[in-house]
Amino acid sequence: MKERGKTEECMAGSLLLAHPSLRDPNFRHAVVLISAYDDEGAIGVVLNRPTGNTLGELDDEFESGPLAGVSVFEGGPVQTDRVLICAIGFHEDGEGMRLHFGLEPKAAEELVVEHGDAIKLRGFLGYSGWGAGQLENELSHDTWAVSAIPSDLLAFAQDETLWRGVLSRISPEWKLLADEPDDPELN
Predict the structure, then answer these.
(1) Coil, strand or helix: which one is 170?
(2) CA gyration radius for the chain?
(3) In angstroms, rounded to a whole number, what is the distance separating the alpha carbons of residues 32 and 83?
(4) Tens of pLDDT along 30-40?
(5) Which residues neighbour 178 within 8 Å (Cβ) at sequence distance 6 or greater?
(6) What is the pLDDT of residues 64-81, one digit of tens each?
(7) CB within 8 A of 169, min separation 6: which ones?
(8) How many domains does the chain have?
(9) Helix or strand holding residue 161 (H, E)
(10) Contact predicate 46/128, CB 8 Å
(11) What is the extent of the structural domain holding 110?
(12) Domain at 124, CATH number
């Protein structure tokens, strides 16, 4: 079930929200930020799977530098042995988001110096990827809901709360689905 008016041509810079019935452990209740989308496929990172670690705890390269305290998330099931550093922020006028995907450590440090608290750095173990036509097929089977990025995206707790909050805003039907318990007997 795609959000009305959202087309595949403009999916880069959008959020994919896993359908509540999706049981794949890689994407159960996931919020995926799509960073690139074209005829060859799509790439993004899961925003709501914190590992509880920081870059400094995971890699000696960051242990004592300015990136040591950057939170690390599970970015997706592809190349989970790689750490991607991304920067997320919103334009000062509130119109649109800035995403810097796959930054080199030095460039990440420079962004923090230049933008301060207006930009948030995150480390991601791996990423999410779809080959040509794969994501379109999943969308045609209502595996995902597509949403614009809300301006308060970073205000949500970066766990399942993010999934529920954004999914609930798409429509009243999605809100009902997001709020239903996993076990219908608990309803």
Answers:
(1) helix
(2) 17
(3) 16
(4) 999 999 999 99
(5) 20, 163, 164, 167, 168
(6) 888 999 999 999 999 999
(7) 147, 150, 175
(8) 1
(9) helix 160-170
(10) yes
(11) 8-186
(12) 3.40.1740.10
